[in-house]
Amino acid sequence: MQLEVIGVGGAGCRIADAIRAADEEAASSSFVADAFAFDTDVDGLTDLGAIPDTHRHRYGETIDHGLNGNLHRGFEVGEEYVDELSRQLDQGQPSLADAFLVVVGLGGATGGGTAPHLVANLQTLYDEPVYVLATLPAKSELEDGPTDEIDHRAPVAEPATDGPTDDTETATETAADSEPATIPEAETRPLAEANAVETLEQLDGLANAIVCFDNELWLRPREGLGDGRQRLNRELATRVGAFFGSTADTGGLDGDERSRDGRDRRGESGAETVIDANDVGRILGGESDVVSLGYGTQRVESDDGGGSPFGLDIDLGLGLFGSDSSVDTGAAFSAVETTIRKALRGKLTLECERENAERAMLIVGGPPAWLNRRAISEGRETLESATGSVEILGGDAPRSGGDEVFAVVVLAGVDPIERLETMRAENR
Ligand SMILES: Nc1nc2c(ncn2[C@@H]2O[C@H](COP(=O)(O)OP(=O)(O)OP(=O)(O)O)[C@@H](O)[C@H]2O)c(=O)[nH]1
């Protein structure tokens, strides 16, 4: 499937940029139709690398360096500029997209204030689902966060009342110096959790689904967001790319035509079980459910090309297209089994009780000869018993010439989530 990826606010733009960069690297499984960056802070836009200039848009010209966490103002600005932002999308081809992905860092005012208006507007203008990808704030951003979760080596700065809110330069300096990490001014956002709760409330009933990434969970001990955010954004982009990049680009074909054909528009060998935009829609749902992603990977020897030179896929019982007899069945089984276990049991983008998931999806990808069928089918059974989900879908994503096996687990409708419940209770 093809997505319009739209970043709003500092975090949203940086993450959308990282997604676009990852998508360019994985050209054969590209899923980003267009990527846009919308911010009130011009510096944030200038620092992006992958999103083309034509797709970066600064709005609210009278606003200097962002809204500094004033969410009330953020909602006003969002409402005022939403039509202007939606018009920017015409630089791309939004009507051809299978879905929209609005990316936002919850906690700020620009992204948090604009995202609900933008999502509502896109729902009105287009028929395709509008998903949100949202980060949750780190505890170290809160001025009065629990002291044992703050880097004690680093004095927490007073919240900025003016001056630049983009912390790129400060972060770069901190990383470059080998001094103990300090938390740059802009990272201190006393209202981050309260803002996050409010934006989530606003998104409820508007977004089809909200894929969450918890900064608190992903930062290392004593690592500030300024130091860690690039790594976090790459981790997130990898997961988003593994998920959406594994879906078939139907090129206008419906599911039946495509599975008879066995190949998708990208020319990659067709998967045995193809996941398409409709399947994604079924699992993510349309009720603003919270979604968490799990991911596991293992390096393997490349099968160099996959498929027979005569275009015949000879099944030797090894993998989906087991044309490479050099891949040991036991090794393939174990690689698939391990990646599925990592994806299911390892760190999720948002920690949650797996057994609460109402719907779930497992995608296994990698060199065709390594995609051991038995291990994939056992993995689906494991997911089924781990989640007790009513609805489970599985798919595979053969990547000829690749050198890793990967698995993505998508858990949807995972309420109640302790992290969100606590945040809501503390910010009533
Ligand atoms: N993962 C990740 N999170 C970020 C990043 N930058 C900021 N955040 C998080 O996103 C929240 C909002 O920050 P921004 O996106 O910079 O804020 P904004 O939407 O631009 O709003 P204002 O600065 O208030 O105008 C912060 O509280 C952080 O939790 C980033 O690059 N990566």
Automatic annotation (TrEMBL):
Residues involved in GTP binding: 109-111, 141, 215, 233
Assigned keywords, A-Z: Cell cycle, Cell division, Cell shape, Cytoplasm, GTP-binding, Nucleotide-binding
Region (Disordered): 142-190, 245-269
Pfam family, one: Tubulin
GO cellular component: cell division site; cytoplasm
Biased composition (Low complexity): 171-182
Signal peptide extent: none
Domain Tubulin-like CetZ C-terminal: 225-425
Subcellular location per the Swiss-Prot or TrEMBL entry: Cytoplasm
Name of the protein described by the UniProt record: Tubulin-like protein CetZ
Organism: Halopiger aswanensis
Lineage, broadest ranks: Archaea, Methanobacteriati, Methanobacteriota, Stenosarchaea group, Halobacteria
